[in-house]
Design a protein that fits this description.
two-stranded antiparallel ribbon, alpha/beta, nine-stranded mixed beta sheet, Rossmann fold, globular
Length: about 290
């Protein structure tokens, strides 16, 4: 049985911290002596709605400093300028408030991995060595958003695509069928130890950067990233098995996808469901099923 915490409220920072406190025992069991690495989502360096809010990160840090006493890393490989995102979104204040270090993953180092998109297609990608390091405790600080090619962006996609060197990101976009398999392959090698999903204000419509705000007032957390994304999909009104990369992750038994085997703690799930309006290209996104 996987545990997922679901908190409802009005303060993003407080909700995030409380979501982690509810599963503190799970986190302590998996954290042990590993160094935490928080990976936010900077799909945009200028649009706050599309990117991880600094108060979500503060909520994570508020919890972590109670169980970990050394330096915590905050790192991202934006497809644009990660350092600009740190400036624009208020992250430069964090080292003055907490024992943290900000890193632009695009500066390297990298390791090469090979992923398959089916039909004999393979890619060699440069992936952050930091996020492949099994001595690190990788935290995916995700946003709840619709997506233009893979339906939804939650904790697994945030880490998988954010682990890739900026210059390699576009090569993953080789068609609906291929990208879903590529993401699953990457995710299997770069998997979150902890998923934290910010649903304080989600994005519907033409996400992951051009959609509209959905004021939900929720936070989700779990040491089972697939279970966290399963709960996120339920809230968004999306069938997880319609989302290609999540279906493949479930098929590989990377986490729990059966809602009946997920213990949701905190808020009642049924009270948080608010179906998101999908991307305008949603019909095309089912093409992976015909592969």
């Amino acid at each position: 049985m996987s545990r997922v915490s679901l908190i409802k409220g009005s303060d993003r920072r407080v909700m995030t911290r409380r979501s982690l406190e509810l599963i503190a025992d799970d986190i302590k069991q998996t954290l042990t002596s590993k160094q935490p690495v928080i990976k936010p989502n900077f799909v945009s360096t200028t649009k706050q709605l599309a990117s991880s809010h600094v108060d979500q990160i503060r909520g994570i840090l508020d919890f972590l400093i109670s169980v970990y006493k050394e330096t915590i890393i905050i790192s991202e490989a934006s497809c644009y300028d990660t350092k600009e995102a740190f400036r624009n979104f208020g992250y430069l204040d964090l080292p003055r408030e907490y024992p943290v270090k900000l890193l632009d993953l695009n500066d390297g180092p990298f390791e090469n991995i090979t992923v398959s998109g089916g039909n004999g297609k393979t890619l060699n990608l440069s992936v952050s060595s930091l996020l492949l390091d099994n001595t690190k405790y990788i935290i995916s600080a995700a946003k709840m958003k619709t997506h233009d090619t893979v339906m939804v962006s939650l904790s697994i996609k945030n880490l998988a695509m954010g682990s890739i060197f900026r210059n390699d990101k576009k090569t993953v976009h080789q068609g609906i069928s291929e990208i879903n398999m590529f993401i699953a392959d990457i995710a299997e090698q770069v998997w979150p130890d902890l998923a934290v999903i910010d649903g304080s204000e989600g994005m519907e419509g033409d996400g992951p950067s051009g959609g509209q705000a959905v004021p939900l007032g929720i936070a989700i957390a779990s040491t089972d990233a697939l279970a966290a994304d399963r709960v996120g999909c339920e809230i968004m009104g999306v069938d997880l098995h319609d989302v290609g990369y999540l279906h493949y992750c479930a098929d590989r038994h990377l986490g729990e996808d059966n809602l009946g085997r997920i213990e949701v703690q905190g808020e009642r799930l049924s009270k948080c469901i608010r179906p998101f309006r999908p991307h305008s290209a949603i019909a095309e996104q089912y093409a992976w099923k015909r592969a």
